[in-house]
Amino acid sequence: MTVLFVDIVGSTALVDRLDPEDVRAVQRAYFDTVAGVLRRWNGVVEKYVGDAVMALFGARESDGFDAYRALRAGLEIQPALERRPLTEGGALRVRVGVATGEAVVELPAARDGGHGVASGAVITTAARLQEYAPPGAVVCCPTTRRATTGLLTQRRLTPLTVPGRAPAMEVWRVAGPAGQPAARHDSPLVGRRRELATARDRIVQAVRERSSQWVTVTGASGSGRSRLLHELTRAVDVVDGVPVRWCVASCPPHPHEPLAPVANLLRDLVGLGPADPSSVARERLSGALTGLLPPARLATAVPALERLLAVPDTTASAAAAWFHEVLLRLAAQRPLVLGVDDLDRAAPAVDRFLHALFTAAAARELPLAVVTLHGTDRADVLPVARGRRCHVPLRPLAPVQTGRLLRQLLVRAGQPVDRLARLLPLVGDTPGHAVAYVRSLADGADPAAPQLPEALGRAVGAEVDRLDGVRRAALMAGAILPDGFTAGAVERLLGWAPGQARPALAALRATDLLVALPEGRYALATPALRRVAADRLPRRLRAVFASRAAGQPGSAGQVVRDAVGPVCRVATRPETPPAQSGRADPSATASFPVNAAPAAPRLDAARRSDSRPATEDRPGRSAGDRGLPAGRSAVPVGSAWWSPASGAARSDRDDAGTGAAAVRPDRADPPGGSATVVAGTAA
Questions:
Q1: pLDDT(584) > 50
Q2: Which terminal residue of the chain has fewer beta carbons within 10 Å of its beta carbon, N or C?
């Protein structure tokens, strides 16, 4: 969870020179402005303390980018106050501190003004950072900085000495958005030859037949979607001697500016960097559009497109229309391919833009292809005619392919190849996880006991956070059962009625979080998912599950009743190493629906449609239909194990960090209802 503190600079002097009525008016306007910015970025105001405001990001629900949203909100607070002068002497100046870490959260009170919602050292850290920040600045802790690397520009400040903590804590000042992050594509492409050929053939068909084609690449997190797109840009640069123009963009992690992906496509087209000033943008736009548009239209189009680059929100719809025409004219001159990565994050305005462009290109018979990449749980909302659509699902790697990938990664990183055997059961069949583990070794991780990489933990944790309460409960129960568990085993563990777990497990399978095995059995899709989901369980509930798994439901009854409550633990990797963190035992404040029998989850058909689309040219089976890869251990590394002597459950990840986490109540609960799920990373 990420905590933000904001306070007024020089508030004492301000209060001394104003009448009490004026102080109240200033405070109301100040709180209203700050709270408005926080809500825009999905923050929850936890309390007002004097002139300070404390907000939580990821307390109730999380998208894996809580730290990013908190910093973006912090950056907007000062400009928002400057646009609304609250005193005769001008706008107020504020300091903002942001920290990410572990906390205990009372879910029913996790709403604006819910005083006392959260507790934990991360709150003290955020308050200390706020006191340390220069006037008008936003500063953050190292964990927040790592979670936003590549998304925001930051510079190191003098380390902050915190009483009772050694050594001094590193502090980073946040300057602003970094534009479209530069993705790393230095890893080898292994096991994707067929998928690459399918997508390439469709783009070639669009060029040769002048028939627009739409290619959808889907896969779970870490399956290599971005890596495949990068390879496509290299594989289809010339067709029959005709050069192909590519425009590639990724969608930012929060659709605060709904047309940002469209603006990123424009930046890629004209070769603009994130820090280029407006004068350079005007020059590049004029150079790219000269000869493409008549001079009279060029004089109108360039200022409009400049606005799209500067403020890509809903007010830039006219500028988006100009860009629409520019792309059609470019496609008429030479073949054009648009690649949009992470379409899951895009606002509906991006879908509408792409569909209108594709429809117009098809009507004019232009050689244009659109390549979109997203997860398997996103619906295909755009109607595209048969014969013009191709779905390319990215299947899990075979064990031999994973081994080959790991070997090449270790060699490139200068690591001993004999570490492959230790990494293979941790990686599973996901190429992105292999890259993350090898990078962590290159960064100095212990090769004898590789911990879950922080970035990987955040990505996998976001997948868990997007689930509703029932599916998350089923996933966590499956995480402490060995591979090959059944719906009945989950029901016994959670205390559910017979047949209640089947819809939840089917929904998890449809989103590629579970693997379907023969005879109605299931396994978690990746070892990393098992580790993250198991770590969300407080230790006390692991003991409850251990008793139930051992066939002793009666001995666990009182523990379960004590555990069910409105307080849950949410966390990310703490500021200090696990051995120094001094983490409190969360058992007394854990909650989990182990006794409840909630209604079966409502399965969203739109979110499931992309997992089993009725489309053509689908190479192989959907990832959700795969069986357990050959050679995979029945109980992979990272599963929980039981201690028969004590009746307690332990996890080999009790003291390992995993990344951003959040708590979400069952969507069927009324506002302020009791929590039905525990989320929290044992860091």
A1: no
A2: C
